[in-house]
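Problem: given the chain below (502 residues), write out its structure.
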Amino acid sequence: MWQAMARRSLCCVARVDGERDCGHIMGKRWAKRWTSSGKGHRRNDVHALRVTPPSSTEPVQWSLPPSKSHLIRALLLASQSSESVELHNVGSAGEDARAMRRCLQQLGVHIEDVDQEGKLLHQVNPVHFEHHPDSVKWIVHGVGDSGFKRPASVLNAGNSGTTLRLLAPHAAMIGGPVMLDGDGSLRKRSSTELWATIEQSGATLSIGMGEERLPALIDGPMNPTQLEAGLTLDVSRSSQPVSSWILAAPTVPCQTEITLEGTQVSSRHSALSLQMLSMFGGDASMEENQLVITPSPLKELNEYTVPGDASMAAFAMLACTVSNRDIDLIGWPDKKDAIGHEILEEHAPSLGVNWNQSTLSRIEANKPVELDLKDANDLLPPLAAILGLNKGGRLKGAAHAAFKESNRLQRTVDVLAQFGMTAEVNSDGLTILGGQRPQRPDKPVETYGDHRVFMTAVLLASACGGDVVGQSLHMVADEPFIDRLIASGVGVEPIRMPPIED
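Solution.
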């Protein structure tokens, strides 16, 4: 039954693109391209960037993109409101936030784009639910009491695990099957703990098995009797399932108590969800191992300004370190909006960076440093490189980084090794040898589909040169990243190469 529903939903997507007999057409085209000998088959070339060091030593302007953590949550909350909410500072929003926007539009939310002069912008093809590239403000017209409608096609979260997981309870509240999917990287990531609570709520779940964890087909609505009996949620690997239920509070069918099991990680992100829910007028409380969410209409909130993404400042610090150039950092948020990433500013001197208001300058670190990344594991790849280029040290409290786009612990070690640098995985993080310099790799640098590993590799290559696999992974969170480097004099050239042999 579920397999048949999945096939119908996937064919629906094909029909949106104009294919009426998707199975016949796709099969015919594939047969034409493929032969057992490979003759006539299109070679899947690898896309990469050829990076060369800059000749300039001038200071670099580094604007932080809008925080995807804040923007994704603001989009979801504004969409549940009965009012129109203006979201400011959304220019250069990354692909993760845009994935949430697209999915919400599929669920019936109307979102308008406004440019710097306050002019309403119109899309050439609004069917694709894309934002306008010139927009700096989004106006979200919430659905209020009407609720989200069942989408006509698959909700594709792309690479955004946050989008996928935050939407799951809402999909379960809609009557009828809703399919959630993502890209190849997201399909390999587990959401087992969240799926368990969806099934406890009374909705039916059908999901991929083995290595492919998606698509997920959720058939709601939830059963209020089962919600009133309470849910149990394992929080030891990710805070996102906690945020999923917090941000579902405005429209959940009845008050629900959720027992939280295990030691919670990335607790600053679940605290952010509670803070933003309260700002929008929602009702939820969390004490020790108990989360209580209560349905309530959201209050009128006319506008919200998205703060800069503090986690992205780690790449500005790495750029400062590898190039020995001053960085003019623009958009650093208040401490309350840094969600754990304020440790960058607090520990800057021990990381070899003088942080003087908005100017970052390279200095000599005094000794190895130990940092706890329990609430900031996104910083792992660039911080590991920074420690290696300084006095070394240890990054701890980051065991849960193994469940990111890649096994970020191991992949950080792997990408450093490709530049001739040494780090070691330990029980809850990394140990990094100090006094190292990146060496030009003798083959293309693999980045494992992880945008933070990719951005780290590009910056290391900007010091010694090299080819880095991937061209647009940075767009997940920081769309202007490559353009910024080019403007600073770094050579970045897109190239294509034959598939890399294992």
